[in-house]
Amino acid sequence: MARVPAFAKAFAGRWRIVEMDNWDNDALDLGEEAHLIFQGTADGEIAFVSLKGFLDVRYGARSGSACAEFSREGQDANDAACGRGWAALGSAGRLVGHIYTHNAADSGFVGERD
22: closest CA among 110, 112, 111, 108? Predict the structure, then answer.
């Protein structure tokens, strides 16, 4: 069994996506409750609007702060979709980051621990 990186522990668990730059809050939960899950050494899950995907995560630091960078693949409205993103621990225990979809939209986001 692989050892969990120290930074991974800060992100571990389920985060509710509560805000995105490019979608209003009514659209976030269209398919299911918008969320990010970080688990284990490199796995995770993401869902928002009509997108659902699985993450391949790498943990480290960015400007001295804990950071999770990830690639993702899955479905967006039943079409194959892939992309990348990053998340960092922000103020008040919130998660802040950016999600990019290959050949489509990108958006900043804010998450709160579930």
Answer: 108
pLDDT given at position 63:
80
**What is the total count of domains within the chain?**
1
For residues 25-44, average pLDDT: 93
28, 7 Cβ separation under 8 angstroms: no
Domain assignment present for residue 63? The answer is yes
pLDDT, tens digit, 9 for 90 and up, residues 86-95: 999 988 889 9
Between CA 77 and CA 101 the distance in angstroms is 13
Q: Has residue 105 been placed in a domain?
A: yes
Q: What is the CATH number of the domain that holds 101?
A: 2.40.128
Q: What angle do CA 32, 94, 99 make, to 5 degrees?
A: 55
Question: Cβ(46)–Cβ(35) under 8 Å?
Answer: yes
Q: Which domain holds residue 19?
A: 6-113
